[in-house]
Amino acid sequence: MGHTHHEAAGIAPAVSSVGAKYVEPSATRILQRGEKVDDLFNRNITTPYFVQRLSERAYFFNGGFYTTTFYIGETGVLLLDAPEGQAKNILAAIAEVTSLPVTAIVYSHNHADHILSTAEVIEASRAAGVTEVRIIASTKTAEKMEFLKCTLPAPTETVAWPKATFKFDNVTVRFDGFERAAHCDDAGTFLLVEEKVVHLPDLLNGDQPPFWRFGTAENTVYYRLNITQLGDLDWIHHVGGHGNVGGKEDIAFVKQYLDDLDLAVAEGMKTVKFGMVEDIKQYNNHAALMVPWLGTLSKHVVDQLRPKYGKYYGFEFSVPSHAEMVTLSAISYR
């Protein structure tokens, strides 16, 4: 299969942002550079999950618009995140390729939607005879969970922030925390070194412009720095938490998109007049000067970018938020 369009029931197919070759998912065939899983949106709404093999021992799980990574070792399975509502599907996916139980779980960051199924996975492992499942997180994630009185299972061991490595059977896992993180303050990359697979949710999703509000980034101004740090690591496949399998071509695409977005915002700030309100007294709030301007400018930016990017997945839903966030950052940082 060599087509380069998404197939989705009832709508025009989106075009690959990186000229990907689309293939059907396979739990046995290793995904090659430049390949993506076909029909991704439709698969998410019509099937419970699928598995794609990424390397000799690492696999991509997709279910309910969530993705994660698992690694099959000699004695057990390492699961990187256990997304919300996906415990049964994850366990079924793992069972497709191995009879080994999950013996370790990594928390990529302290957002519940990516780790909420941990207790269910641990329960299944204990039923399979595992006396203790390792829960591994960075020191910053562990401290954040304690500070916020998180009710999810606490890490049983930590890796030092901002850089550390640990072993799981025969694989080296390298952790790199973002010194200045966009998505949240405890975000970082987990790289399966020998497999050349990197796990980092909520920053970049393969084959599309950034998600709405840059993946709900808490600090947009650092987004490009994080994309660069991710791209500088030695990997072939990236698992981003919600979209298609990522590759280095996706890094290049997003960097170009950010360049074009910055230019469009700069042009829009010169073109769209600030404070276009006939009578601010009726609102009794000076936000009436900012909010309509921001909305008008955002629409202007989206119109500027549509000829080049409008054919890509999520454009109409995501790009208006990008324009607003970049505009606010441009106002703040000069």
TrEMBL record:
A GO term, aspect molecular function: hydrolase activity
Alphabetical keyword list: Hydrolase
Keyword match Electron transport: no
Start and end residues of each Metallo-beta-lactamase domain: 65-242
InterPro entries membership: Metallo-B-lactamas (IPR001279), RibonucZ/Hydroxyglut_hydro (IPR036866)
Entries under Pfam families matching the protein: Lactamase_B
Protein name in the entry: Exported Zn-dependent hydrolase
Organism: Melanomma pulvis-pyrius CBS 109.77
